[in-house]
Amino acid sequence: MVAVGNTGYNSMLQVWDVKTGKVLVRLTGHKDVVTAVQFSSDGTKLISGSWDRTVKIWDTATWHELKSFAGHTSAVRSVALSSDGTLLLTGADDKTMRLWDVASGEELALFSGMTGQVTSVAFSPDGQTAVSGTNHNEVLE
User: Fold this and answer.
1) Between residues 45 and 10, which one has the greater pLDDT?
2) What are the residues whose beta carbons fall under 8 Å from the beta carbon of 19, sequence distance 6 or more?
3) Averaged pLDDT of the chain
């Protein structure tokens, strides 16, 4: 399976079967272009971020939306789920990175002070460190 956002600048998120080359499902929960996607390490969830300033978690068995996260003030560009699936990291054009508790949906931390849009976020394998990259050549840990 592969997930694709930003298809023709619409709000649709498509999941494709790589073996057959056919669309398995079209997810329509976002209200603007989908710019970030990631599957959970166990494949049971799909995370998506959008220009609509939200992040959504989808159940890959039913393709229903499990949770939506809102807090960024501009387009979400990057998402990362910790390997244990308990923490979500998001980066956006508002020059912030946010850390979320997946179970409660609560924002745990706001990291600001970057001079550029946060275009990439990641967790270390043990989930103890988060990093971000910006379009101003910054990498922050």
Assistant:
1) 45
2) none
3) 90
Q: Domain tally for the chain?
A: 1
CA 48 to CA 46: how far, in whole Å?
7
CA gap 55, 67 in Å, rounded:
8
Cβ 38 vs Cβ 83: under 8 Å? no
Q: Specify whether the backbone of 9 is left (phi greater than 0), alpha (psi in -120 to 50) or beta.
A: left
d(Cα 25, Cα 60) in Å, to the nearest integer?
10
Label residue 66 exposed, middle or buried (CB < 10 Å: 0-12, 13-18, 19+).
Answer: middle
Report d(CA 95, CA 116) in Å as an integer: 6
Tell me the mean pLDDT in the region 114-131.
Answer: 90
Q: What is the CATH number of the domain that holds 73?
A: 2.130.10.10
CA 27/CA 95 separation, integer angstroms: 27
pLDDT for 8:
60
Determine the structural domain holding residue 28 and report its residue range.
2-140
Q: Which two tokens stand for residue 21?
A: 């080359």
